[in-house]
UniProtKB/TrEMBL annotation:
Assigned keywords, A-Z: Iron, Lyase
Key word Acetylation present: no
Protein name, per record: Aconitase X catalytic domain-containing protein
Organism: Sedimentitalea xiamensis
PANTHER family, A to Z: DUF521 DOMAIN PROTEIN (AFU_ORTHOLOGUE AFUA_6G00490)
Gene3D superfamilies reported in the protein's UniProt record: Aconitase, domain 3
Amino acid sequence: MQLSDHDLGLLDGVGGDAARQAMEALVQLGEAYDAPDMVEIGYAHIHAGMALYKGDVELIEATAQGGAKMVVPTSTNITNADMGDWQGTGAPDTLGLLQKRAEAAHRAMGSGTSFTCTPYWAGHWPTWNMHIASIESGVTVFANSVLGARSNRDGFFAVYAGMTGRYPRFGLHLDRNRQPTHRVTVTAHPMGTAEFTALGYAIGLTVGSGVPLVTGLQTRPSLDELDAMGVGMATSGGVAMFIVPGVTPPFNEDADVPGLTEVEVGEADLAQIFDGFCTGDETGFDLVHLGCPHASFEEMKQYAALLSGRRIAEGVELWVTTSRAVRQMAREAGLLAPIMASGARVVTDTCPISCHFACTCSPDPALGVKPPSLRTILVDSAKQAHYVRDMIQCPTLFTTSELAVESAVAGRFLPRNRRNA
């Protein structure tokens, strides 16, 4: 790799031992991918330190204690506990207190303690053509596609990038890898985030880790719908970037791109995704979950309107998950009151697939984590449905946001595919 004087200085310890170790790791990453040099990053979304794995928190603490400091604006990803009210979600004190230790370490490093999978709704908004690093696949696909920034799907290397402001130039940091590989013609008419997650999920199943050029959408998707479509693609496939002509930057909608693999996604494909994730007991769901990815302020307005003056059915729990920043905005706008008056719970920092519900994570026995016995979780997101199956090993029901709320109020499942029957 061709390293700059700045890079070499970091390797020589000019920025301290922690930065030296981080730079060494980034050089190894770059050499593994034949990167020609390093790029300057302007933002990093990094690993939070997951309390279900005590060693993971200790790694974050050791990084902070070693003198690590973030040199670019940095946000933190989702955690294993709502650090403001873990008791309310049923998590043990041992888990919540351990997660708070990771929070303290991040503050010492200068990380923005957002603890969310949607830091863009919390104000972290990288600009067009900015190189960034991100541990979260949803952040990566949103940044590449909607904002025009440049990011790979990273792991802990995002922490090292935040500590150095550097990252190897490979993958989607190179122009040649940001070209479409598939032309996806959408003949369905998705509306709302749930249907857009299903659309994205259907696309990801077909294109894998390609870059889909999505055409045929009848209306311009909202930011929330673009977000939902991206996380759907990133969940079923390895998609880290998509293109919607005239919507996402920069792409000439009249450009002729020959040789693309042709794909069509219709209403039957969306219906198949919804039906495929409906395997749970329609009258015995324990939890209804809204907010995957973490809800935006606009979605909080929608949930408040849907729940205003209503009450969740007895025996049903409803979680709305969002970031700390969006929750505060919602509180100040008077949106939390109608949501919570319905009996719903507003949860931050975590979500069902990242909290103590996870039963496949082999947590430290000393934490005393005993996942509840869950029969079925009802969701409005293909991403959440996918990971509830994998990480909680729990049956799911999948419907739209509106029908999820109606189901929570009625105490019985109202499926999207039978709404007009």
